[in-house]
Amino acid sequence: MNPDCLITACSSAEAVAVAPYLLGFHPTNSLVLLGLLGPMVDFAVRYDLPAPDCSDYSEVASVVARQGADRVILIGYGPPKPVSTAMVGVGRALRQAGVPIEDVIRVADGRWWSYRGGPAGGTPCSPGLAAHAVYQGMVALPDRKALVAKVSPVDGVQRQEMSEATGRARSRATGLAAADPRAEGDGQWMRKAGREAVREAERLARAGRSLSADEVAWLGVLLVKSIVVDYAIDRSGPEDWRLRLWTDVVRRVEPEHAPAPACLLAFAAWQAGDGSLARVAVDRALLEEPGHRLAGLLDRLLAAGIRPYSVLALTPPGRPPAPGLRNDRKEKSEALPRDRGPRGTGGGRRRRRGTRRRSL
């Protein structure tokens, strides 16, 4: 992914072509909104098509209006009736919120139709119009399931290897805790070991190297403690190597250890503007531990469309801001909401010269 790039949508045909690349996957049964600043795509936001009886789209309109786009293009993916019902409701809510609508489009079976006129049989989608997105390194996975698979646990031989490594890591932690007289309060050993493990994982990832099974297992055991997670959060940033690191860790650790690295992946993806990846990572964390404190916080940030530079820190008052959230990153990353139905939005990707991706 190259952050120094520009994606534009100068026509409805171009908007249809680039939308999957902005989201990171080809949507189905979805409502997608593209926010435009001039010809530039400023953000993309995805919802599942709502239930037929849904009548309240005010939250959708509020999230979109907050982003400050000049205008939006609505794209519905699916059969005519559910798409048309959603378009009417969302369109009404956006107009009430003062958001101009440039076009309203339905996509199905490789063709698209504009509700504002065009061939009765629709217009063929033109993948060639997305060539610039592909050139810039943007990828559109086949569907959202393929995106979810990126954070799903490994199985087979790898799972057996990780189970054995986790047993060794737990024995190591028990031994260190027994030797530490302050172990009841996490102990000095936990602070020291956690910092060393996080820094070593970052060093290897930055160098393009993978962690061994024992290194991943040890990191997973240590990250169950908030003191270690907070340290890793404070060091977080939008770098691609961090996304690779935490994606690898969340897939390989034992499922009960997945919430913390999933949150670290979500946080890094959020800072990088990859809202889709952030959303599925948070969902993975909440699947393993529904009451996880940090996952719940990130879930609310994504749902509200909060931008990273608007948040000083995810740490208690009195602590310095996380490096990735200082105001000097204001032009480097912007945030996005959730990816589930009419009460939440799914992150897409933004491409803008000199900025990172932004998804809602």
TrEMBL record:
Any Pfam family hit: DUF4192
UniProt biased composition (Basic residues): 348-360
InterPro entries: DUF4192
Residue spans of biased composition, Basic and acidic residues class: 326-342
Chain spans, region Disordered: 158-186, 314-360
Identification of the protein by name: DUF4192 domain-containing protein
Source organism (scientific name): Paractinoplanes globisporus
